[in-house]
Amino acid sequence: AEAEGEILPDPLVNALRRITRAVSATLELREVFTRVAEAAASVLPLDFMAVVRVKDDGALELYSLSGEVKDQPYAIRPEDFSPALRPSPDRVRRIDDMAKLLDPSFAIDRKIQQAGMRSNLAAPLLRGEQLAGYVMVESRRPGVFTAEHEAALQPIADLLAMALEHERLWSRDMARRRRLDAINALLPMLAGVLDIREIFNQVSAVVKPVLPHDLLVLSSLSADRRVMNVDALSGEPAPELWAPMPVRELDLKHAVEPVLISDVE
Q1: How far apart are CA 189 and CA 86, in angstroms?
Q2: In degrees rounded to 5, what are phi and psi of residue 8?
Q3: Which of 105, 127, 154, 197 is 20 to 30 A from 92, comparing alpha carbons?
């Protein structure tokens, strides 16, 4: 279209420009997602927008609702979607009337039904070849999204993926900096101490911001490699935890690498 000899920009181009500026201007996802939701609403007839993030372990988190970042991301399992509504990791998917597909025995289907949503568009957020999440837009009217809307959602998804990647890299760098700061704080503390047990609570306090814990334990193997002795504990005295622990040869084979136990009970 033209007005007074000037070519008017396409609404999608305008929306993408706004999103690009938001992504490039800040790492604060609250601000980015708010602007993305506003820009998307200018080109898509949506009533609802959600960003689902894929964590490093493959779990899903509902990360943002209509531009508002969740303080406590809501955990979602792929199996919380019925098979017909489960987002596709490799393409934009359009559903014209979800009411015909909803299965209330699935948690997400129940929420969609309660909200009265009918039309759905979903696109994957990709980090290179790796799936970083999904963006989903929905409307309470059936058949509202078109092939043009599908085409519009993909570049929005690409910019959202870029924002998530920027934030992920920044968070990883900040975590690395916190670890270095903790090490730097520990070195002078340890330098003048011959017995670490004297300052173990201070060690725990320095380590806690980068390794959250309720109890920090220092133990050592006996000379005959049969007993593990507890040398220091953080926190209040706990006599029951000081008892030497017998060690099997099998345990020693696994003791050369860090071990993560998700439930010690």
Answers
A1: 53
A2: -85, 135
A3: 105
Give CA–CA dist 50/70, Å, rounded: 11
Q: The pTM is what?
A: 0.61
What 3-state class would DSSP assign to 95? strand
The identity of residue 217, as a single letter, is V
- Count Cα neighbours of 68 within 13 Å in the Cβ-side half-sphere: 7
Q: Which two tokens stand for residue 68?
A: 């508002």
pLDDT digits (tens, 9 = 90+) for 131-190: 888 999 999 999 999 998 998 888 888 888 888 888 778 877 887 887 788 777 777 777
Q: Give just the sign of the alpha carbon dihedral 5, 8, 9, 10.
A: negative
pLDDT digits (tens, 9 = 90+) for 206-253: 888 778 888 898 888 888 888 888 888 887 767 777 788 888 766 676
Residue indicated by tokens 């009411």: 99
